[in-house]
Every structure is written in structure tokens, then in C-alpha cells.
Amino acid sequence: MDKPLAQEEIDALFAAARTRVRSVKEPPANARMQLFTFSRVGQINNEQMRAISLLNDNFARNLTHNLGAFLRSRFQVALASAEQLPYSEFVERVPDICYVASVRLEPLGAVCGLELDLALALPMIDLLLGGEGKAAAVRELTDIEESILASVVEVSCRELTSAWQPVGLTFNFEKRQQQTQIARLMSLTEKTLSISFEIRMPHVQGNLNLVFPAVVSNTILRRLITDWGRQNRRRSPEVLARMGERLQHIRLRGALQLPSVRVPATEVDALQPGSIVRLNLPATSPSELRIGGIPLFHAIPVRADQHRGAQITARNNPLLNRAVE
């Protein structure tokens, strides 16, 4: 038969249960907690964004000079923004009447998108046909105009290849993508890198947009950050002087030994205390002074006060000879 609980016992059980729940929910006083957003996984950090900006600033500067000379008109390109967003969001930003081209990235075998405002495309075509490049109403391009504009895209791809040379990418213009084909360039859920450039011409201005697939962000950016950090790392003279001073106190393992020779196994097997081993070396052969296991000098053993020493007679390392010369 179950024993009925008194009110004091029931209150004690509830108090113990509340204490256990509180101990589970409340973290330790010294615990460090921060919010975690799963949507930010793989997000480009500030260091990567600085490297991307540096890379595309070079592209904007080169395109300003070379495409301006190609169009024979005043032409200015500037990096406007670089952000990471789903490809579906990029597709939503594309206007109904647009020019979007697919560009193949080698050796990755991936495809990126290039979007050029038609407000810019029509004046460019007019300049290439001998006109003044004035603004015109946005409309769909004819087949001839599309072929002429392809030369502008090819120049842009050539400058992209030159700017992205540090990461080993080649940009090859494929073809213009129709409005119904843009959404099929990449997966709509893929997290892409979108880079926008502002272009100014004498009578019009607009944007050139590039969208890169995730494979670029995940593989090429790692190499880009490594190279960019190595090239742009600078240390103050005070830091270099302090490093040099500390390096002078490093102890290196040194040894004075004869050059290596081959000894027959039968002779090694017959060795006994007091045996003499013929090393097949002349008596005048100098020893080698090895630092860190590397033979640097020829030397002979000498006595220095109460210690043994090595008197250096010549250098023994060709690399050291060239470094000294």
C-alpha cells in the first residue's frame, strides 16, 4: 500500500525539482556565450572583403583605361559594392529588359554571370558605330547590336583575367543568356559573391555586376587571402629590430665531425673495445663543422683554454659562399 505524502514532503519535492531545472538552464558564471546565426555560416569576413576590394580596384582601374581607349571616349569605372547573397536574390534584382552574359571560369570549369545595364550598352554600341554615345531609351538589342556589344564584354573578360591573375583564374566569354535562362545559370539557393561596379560615361551612367558561384568563394578566396596577406604584411622597424635582437640569442646545435665514409659490415661486426677502424681518409683531411646538421665549414679540432674548439679553415657550403659574396 502506497504511503500518502505530507504537505511538507510535497513542497520539498517541488523545491528540489525547481532547483534541478534552474541548475540545467543557468550556465556557469564564467561561461562565455554568444548568439549563433546559421545563415552566416561561410560568410566572407572583413579580411577577405579587403582582399576582394583590392583585386577589383585593379580591375576597375585597368578597365577605365583600356575600355575607354577601345571606345575612344571618357570612361570611368569604380568598385561600388561587394556582398554575399543567395543567387535567387541576384535574379530578383535583374530588370526585365537586361543584358546578362555567361562567363566560364577556368580551370575551375564554373560559370559566373555578367550583367550590364542596357542604359550603358546602347551608348557603347553607338560609340563603336561612330556616334557620340548619347543616352537612349532602354530597349531590346538587335542581333547586330548584340554582336557589337560582345566585343565590349570580351575586353572586360580580358581585363578580369589580368586582374585575377594572382588566383589563377581565366575569364572566357560564352554567350548572352536570355531572360528565361538566367535563373538556370546556378542553383537559386546557392550563396554567391556579387560585385558591382559603377560606370560613368559622358552622357550616361550605370552598373556592371558580376556574380560568382560558391566554388570561387570557398576555394579561390583562400588562396587570395594567403597571397594578399603575404604581399601586404608590413612590420615596423622597431619590431624588426626586436626580432633581430632575440634571434641573436638562439642556440643552434653544432658538431665537429669527419666527412661520412663507408665502412664494410664485416669490419663493423668485428669491432671490439680498442679496435682501430680505417676510415679511408687522408690524415690531412679536415673535419666538417655542422650547424643544425648542415655542413657549413671545414675546420680542425683545437684546444681553447680548458675546452675543445674548432678552427675554421674554409667554407664548405656553396649556398653560403653565394650569400656572403
What would your notes on this structure say?
This protein is an alpha+beta fold. It folds into two domains: 46-232, Chemotaxis protein chec (3-Layer(aba) Sandwich); 252-259 and 285-325, no CATH class. It contains nine helices and ten strands. It has helices at residues 7-25, 46-71, 87-93, 118-128, 143-163, 214-232, 237-247, 265-269, 318-324; strands at residues 76-86, 99-106, 110-116, 170-177, 191-200, 205-212, 254-257, 287-291, 294-304, 307-315. The strands form two sheets. The protein has a six-stranded antiparallel sheet with strand order 1-5-6-3-2-4. Helix 2 crosses helix 5 (143-163). The longest helix has 26 residues, at 46-71.
Task: Give the SSE layout.
Elements: H1 7-25, H2 46-71, E1 76-86, H3 87-93, E2 99-106, E3 110-116, H4 118-128, H5 143-163, E4 170-177, E5 191-200, E6 205-212, H6 214-232, H7 237-247, E7 254-257, H8 265-269, E8 287-291, E9 294-304, E10 307-315, H9 318-324
Helix pairs in contact: 2-5, 2-6, 4-5
